[in-house]
Design the sequence.
């Protein structure tokens, strides 16, 4: 019937195209590795700055918070 999709096999890459794509992929992996090596070691972006950071709670605040939490349980 004319409305049915053809069941012809999909064309595969020729050997030349396969090796060309493989070579391009391998070259890109090598170039990425070399670029990463030349960039040097990187620190993780998720690390917070040292002590005294505005994102780090103060020791007194932590103690006060835990004292309040424990006093609500009547343990102190």
Sequence:
């Amino acid at each position: 019937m004319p409305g049915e999709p053809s069941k012809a096999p999909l064309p595969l890459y020729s050997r030349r195209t396969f090796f060309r794509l493989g070579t391009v992929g391998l070259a890109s992996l090598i170039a990425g590795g070399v670029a990463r090596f030349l960039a040097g070691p990187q620190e993780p972006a998720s690390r917070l700055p040292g002590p005294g950071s505005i994102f780090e709670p103060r020791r007194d605040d932590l103690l006060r918070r835990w004292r309040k939490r424990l006093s609500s349980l009547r343990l102190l």
